[in-house]
Design a protein that fits this description.
Rossmann fold
């Protein structure tokens, strides 16, 4: 996958209501589980820094690992608008998640983030194992991916009923970036983490009610939208039909 070619589309998506809901909710959900600053965090596949830079503002030391030169260039450009103290807390490193342990050497982190990456990988299991290896014992893993059990929701709400019927049995679809990506059932993600000695402590749904709104911009009611999504993403049955699932684990072994 050439992630350089997706940079413009990703940047545009981040500014839509769907993008705002995703990044805001994931940040709020993580805040309940991350160790306090100045803990060290690695953001695997962190792109242009949408998650890493706000964390650096909070006092965290953040390594942003991404395979795309263009994404790293945009992250570097975004950092130029920050204070020297914040810029000093962010390290930009080129590399894939699967190769992270070689690229980063013996370094282990208090928290490992991997948001919206496993969906682009044919076999995510080696990536999940690499994330666990990067995490110190007692450290936190934050994993966000597409929810296979809810793939029919978006096309159905958009009125594409034939596509929704097909999606009931699918494990991938074409996402907002315009490329086919995989989805995974919650149970599979939990199994991969547990097999690596990681206890799943909480999971959330992201984008229950707003996923079908395409490139719609945020309106004056954005705070109400965010609160509704925040509340729904924590409870059944709503979180089970969210577009994305956000799993939080703590490494207990290794």
């Amino acid at each position: 996958m050439n992630f350089d070619s997706l940079a413009d589309r990703y940047t545009r998506h981040t500014g839509t209501l769907r993008g705002i809901v995703r990044h805001t909710l994931v940040a709020r959900q993580m805040a309940n589980h991350l160790p306090p600053p100045p803990a060290r965090i690695v953001d695997v596949g962190g792109g242009a820094g949408a998650q890493a830079i706000p964390l650096a503002r909070q006092g965290y030391g953040v390594t942003l690992l991404d395979p795309s030169e263009e994404m790293l260039r945009r992250a570097h450009e975004a950092l130029q608008g920050e204070s020297p103290a914040i810029r000093d807390r962010v390290r930009l490193v080129r590399g894939t998640g699967e190769d992270a342990c070689r690229v980063l050497g013996e370094e282990r982190f208090d928290a490992v983030l991997c948001h919206g990456v496993t969906m682009y990988v044919d076999d995510p299991e080696p990536l999940v194992h690499a994330l666990i290896s990067l995490t110190r014992r007692g450290g936190t893993i934050s994993l966000l991916t597409k929810n296979q059990e809810a793939l029919a929701m978006r096309p159905a709400l958009e009125g594409r009923y034939r596509d929704a019927l097909s999606a009931l049995e699918a494990d991938r679809d074409t996402g907002g970036m315009g490329v086919p990506t995989r989805a995974h059932p919650l149970g599979q993600l939990m199994d991969w983490l547990r097999e690596g000695g990681t206890e799943v402590v909480r999971w959330y749904g992201v984008r229950v009610f707003t996923d079908h709104l395409g490139h719609q911009a945020a309106g004056p009611d954005v705070e109400e939208v965010l609160e509704l999504e925040w509340q729904a993403g924590q409870r059944d049955p709503y979180r089970r039909v969210a577009r994305l699932i956000h799993v939080i684990g703590v490494r207990r072994e290794g």
